[in-house]
Amino acid sequence: MIFYVVRRVATAVLVVAGVIVLTFVIARVVPGDPAATWAGPHASAAQVAAARRFLGLDRPPAVQLVSYFGGILTGNWGVAIHTHRPVLSDIGQAAPASIELVTAAMIIGLVVAVPLGLISARWPGRASDHTIRAGSILGVSMPIFWLALILQLVLSDRLHLLPAAGEFSPSLLFTHPLTQVTGFGLIDAPLTGNWPMFGSLLGHLLLPALVVAAYPAGLLTRMIRAQVLDTIGDTHVQMVRALGFRERTVYGRFAMKLAWNPVAATLALVFGYSLVNTFLVEAIFDWPGLGEYATASIQTLDTPAILGVTLFIALVYVAANLVVDIVQASIDPRIRLR
Amino acid sequence: MIEAPAPLPAQAAVVPRGEALRRGLRANPLMALGAVLCLLIVAAALLAPALAPYPADAGSATHPFAVLQPPSSLHWFGTDNVGRDVLSRVIYGTRVSPLVAVFVLVIACVIGIPLGVVAGYFGGWLDEVIMRVTDIFLAFPPLLLALALAAVLPPSLTSLVIAIAVTWWPWYTRLIRGQAASVAGRPYVESCRALGIPSYRIVLRHILPNSVTPLIVQVSLDFGGVILTASALSFLGLGAQDPTPDWGLMVAEGQNYFTTAWWVVTFPGLAILVTAFAFTLVGDGLRDLLDPKRIFLR
Fold first, then answer.
1. pTM exceeds 0.90 for this model
2. Residue B91 contacts by C-beta under 8 Å, 6 or more apart in sequence?
3. For residue B256, what is the DSSP state?
4. Vertex B208: Cα angle to B203 and B209 (nearest 5)
């Protein structure tokens, strides 16, 4: 087991190094002169040259790569052009809101996917199965920026069921301001006993979370259906049947248990995908997370910020995959030997 | 005495061409639905000039006196903020993101297949290098890397195709490599080698044809995914630019008027959904027919 973990961590470190190099390469792809952009449209040639020296762009690429690498490792991810703040502290401030959003979406996705996947697998080929499969494919085919706009129009603008945008009602800023402890509003509010704020946060979270949940719900429903159908004929499941357990229990307890392992692997993947999907909806819902930060950076052509967010999400994604692999290997010894 | 020749073993029931497909469609009505929708989309793309009521509106035409009109018998899908007919633009849109998807998938295959075959057949350090490179690309969720690339490239359809294709090939390299490696170990390939057949011939005649099936399925499944990615990037302003009738771009342009003019956003978005849905249904059905296990939906 230890050997497996060491090997897996070593590959992850290699991949991270590669990821850093790749973001560096992307930054160099930028057409035009970053120094000229940095110095502004009316800068003189001397000022641009000074900017080039300041940004280190006059050094050979290999030296630049090494210093970029060192910067990433020591927490110096550059300065964002549109906020004039260090990229890493911008990301640190924005990440909790996105992680809350994606976590809520994953929970909604699982709550929808587990029963639907089981129903679909229990009566394959029936109308219920076809409907659920069509629904799950619809979920993964959904342009979520469009779903966000439609749901916002219908549920909040027309029906006034849910708040349209923002993280909480602005009036609470004066009556019940949030005390920062962890940076995660949904954890800080109950910790500090700020219940009005907690309710407002939850209410504002629901609509964007529903939108982001479309993809996880669709994908996981399909996964669970396929996995359960795969194992339902196995001898140990037949054994459970022969022992006289009810069909419900056979599917819900025993077949589902076997499906969890591949589903868990997919969860890491879906988490990463959904984190990127927030790029498409946070600006619509005015949700102050990584997605909104990223779209603002894209609009201002803020290369350090764009690459910082890219790198950050890639690191989260690699870490999530690493954790899932190790957890799976500790549950299932066959994986360690691969 | 000459023994009568033993009767030839009865051939396995010959399934006439097309019969397997017909059976598959009956077992999977969703695939039939997807196939019909796909045909309609392709027809719309081919016949766009004949189908669109106002072909000029797919370009830079403006009609200042017909701005943001609701759906009517004149304009079934209404008009946009410069008075262009949304229906015509949606119809012409079948020539934009589906075509982007075709280009992306072709480029991804052209890069991915050779690398995968080389890695899988020859193995060794070459395999190691190619696979570590794909690991790095696969460490990004696909939309993320495409987004970062598209953000630094000048916004255009070409940049869009490049950005997505660069993120897409490693999946195919992986898939083909696994197939090629398993085919390379089979006895008939070994006998080819023993006969002294040059490797390029073994690869082209034996390895490639025998490892390509799952790739075909994956490519058809990915069609919808690429369309979604492309329209997401266009929505963020990183793809097609204004007069191009791109669905993602139309949604982005319509969102400023959305509360008063719902049709400008609704119909192009619906077109993205239906297209991605249709192609995914077909890909999904093909997967069930050809290869139920190996491929997963992205």
1. no
2. B44, B48, B51, B52, B58
3. G
4. 125
Mutation for testing the B interface, residue in A286, A298, A302, A306 having most B CBs under 10 Å: A298
Where does the pLDDT of residue B11 fall: very low under 50, low under 70, confident under 90, or very high at 90 and above? Answer: very low
Residue of A24, A82, A137 to mutate for B, most B C-beta atoms under 10 A? A137
Residues 6+ apart with CB under 8 A from A282: A98, A101, A208, A288, A289, A290, A291, A292, A295
Is residue B100 within 8 A of residue B230, CB to CB? The reply is: yes
ipTM of the complex model? 0.85
Predicted confidence (pLDDT) per residue in A32-68, tens digit = 666 776 677 787 888 888 877 877 777 777 888 888 8
| Per-residue tokens: A236 | 């140990």
Contact B143 A279 (CB under 8 A): yes
Q: Which residue has the tokens 């749901």?
A: A151
Q: B85 forms bridges with which residues in the sheet?
A: B79
Neighbours of B153 (CB within 10 A): 18
Nearest Cβ partner of A313 from B137, B141, B262? B141
- The two structure tokens encoding residue A284: 């619509």
Token look-up 């970029």 returns A68
DSSP H stretches of helix in chain A: 2-29, 34-39, 45-55, 61-73, 87-122, 127-140, 144-151, 172-175, 185-191, 195-212, 214-231, 235-242, 247-249, 256-285, 290-299, 303-331, 333-336
Q: Is-contact A143 B251, C-beta < 8 A?
A: yes
Query: What tokens were used for A318?
Result: 């690699």
**B85 phi and psi, to 5 degrees?**
-70, 120
Whether the CB-CB separation of B132 and A11 falls below 8 Å is answered with: no
pLDDT digits over A237-273, tens only? Answer: 888 888 888 888 888 888 887 778 788 878 888 888 8
